[in-house]
Design goal:
The chain is an alpha+beta fold. The protein has a single domain, classed as Lipocalin, CATH 2.40.128. The protein is built from two helices and eleven strands; from the N terminus they run αβββββαββββββ. Strands 1, 2, 3, 4, 5, 6, 7, 8, 9, 10 and 11 form an eleven-stranded antiparallel β-sheet that branches.
Length: about 170
């Protein structure tokens, strides 16, 4: 029994490790309207785990964006976003997104189920996933909208939109 558990652990760890080594680039970008202007931002420190199905025809993704790495191009705004009213970075240092399984073969665009957790609040939402083959790489892009107020980020405001557009792009070696 111990040998079987060790063998299963080795197989799972090897599959995840080899998928992790194949990741070439990860980008997490967002935009929100504030004071009538669109504010673009990103999270510069992220972690993505790719889990392959047993037959390797499907994968799911589990990702983290570290709140402290938020970058809107304005240092004062970035510092404000770390405070309790917004992301409360000291208590909730990361945002997580998990996908349902999806097929990795071919080029396509379809809906995908997501579990998004921000400030300890987890919501199930639907996004759009797009898979593209580019040379010897695959690009996975997931776009989704969320209501920041559902996650207790920023409170109520007439100046700041409640709607946030998020784009997660992952490029990895085939």
């Amino acid at each position: 029994m111990t040998k079987l558990i060790t063998l299963l652990f080795f197989i799972v760890f090897t599959t995840i490790s080899s998928a992790q080594e194949a990741i070439k680039q990860v980008m997490v970008d967002f935009e929100i309207r504030n004071l009538g202007f669109t504010v673009d931002g990103s999270f510069d420190n992220t972690a993505i785990k790719i889990v392959k199905s047993s037959d390797a025809s499907h994968i799911s993704l589990s990702g983290k964006a570290y709140v402290k790495s938020i970058n809107t191009g304005n240092k004062q705004r970035d510092t404000d976003l770390l405070e309790d009213k917004y992301f409360n970075e000291t208590k909730f240092p990361q945002i997580t997104v998990e996908t349902s399984e999806f097929e990795l073969n071919g080029n396509y665009k379809e809906d995908i189920s997501l579990h998004v957790t921000i400030k300890g609040v987890q919501k199930d939402i639907t996004g759009i996933i797009q898979i593209k083959s580019i040379a010897s790489s695959k690009k996975v892009q997931i776009d989704f909208d969320l209501n920041r107020q559902d996650y207790n980020v920023g409170g109520s405001s007439f100046l700041m939109s409640k709607d946030v557009k998020v784009k997660v792009s992952i490029t990895f070696q085939e």
